[in-house]
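thread: overnight batch results

M.L. [08:02]
morning all. the overnight job finished for the chain we discussed friday. pasting input first so we're all looking at the same thing
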Amino acid sequence: MATNYEPFARFYDLDTQGFDADIPFWINLARRTGGPVLEIGAGTGRVLIPLAEAGFSVVGVDNSPGMLAVARSKIAVARLGKKISLVDADVRELNLGRRFPLAFIALNTFGHFSESGEPERVLERLRAHLSPGGVLALDLPNPTSGAFGNTDGLLLHEYTRSGPTPGWQTIKLRSQWLNETGQRVDVSVMYDEVNPAGEIRRTLASFVLRYFSAHEIELMLRLAKFTLEAIYGSYELDALTDHSERMLVVARAYPEEAE
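M.L. [08:03]
and the structure it wrote out:
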C-alpha cells in the first residue's frame, strides 16, 4: 500500500470508538475453523484482542509501526502476550512460513489495496498462508448508491471526542471524492486536537478506498484458487441485498489435490 497510515495511528481508536458489531462474527468464524487465526491489517488490535480473550491464538499483520505500537500497549495491559503475535510486514510480500485454518481482513481494509494488481497479489499471499480447505473472510462495503455518504468533496464534521491526549478533545473533519471509473473513494481527513486553553494541533491525512462488486470479488477469488462459500449482507448473516450496508465474503482455499 502506497498510502502512509502512520498519521492515523494515534486516532484510530477514536475513529472506531464504540464499534464492535463485527466482533461476534469473527469469534464465531474462529470457533468454526479453530485456531490459530491470521488477521491482515490488524491495526491497533480492535479485533485481535477480543479473539484472544475468547481463547484463540492470533497472528496480526500490519505495515504501520505506529498502529502496532498502540496494539502492543493494549495487549500488554490485557496480559494477552502469549495469545497474540504481531508482525510488521507488507502482506503483498508476506511469507510467514506457516499456514492457518482462518485468515481474515476486517472492516474495509481490503479496499486499501487500491492499485492495479494489488488485491490479486494479496489474495495470492493469503492463499499461500491458508491450510487446504482453509477459510478466508473479507469485510467490505456494499457499493450501492449512496453507500459512502457525501462524495462531493465537502468538508464535513465527523465527530468530536475526548483524547487521545488526556484533557484534549479531537475534532475530526472529512471530505470525500467518488471516482466511479476507478471504483474508488479518495478520502482526506483533518484531526484538530484542542486543549482547554484553546491550543490547536492539526494532523492531515488521506487514503484511498477501492470498492468491489460481488461478481468481481467472486471472479478474483476463483482466479486465486478459492471457492466462494457465501456473501452475507450483515454481521448477522442476512442475505446480501441492495439495502445491505456490508458485504461479508467467506471463501475456502482449494484442497491441494484440486489445484
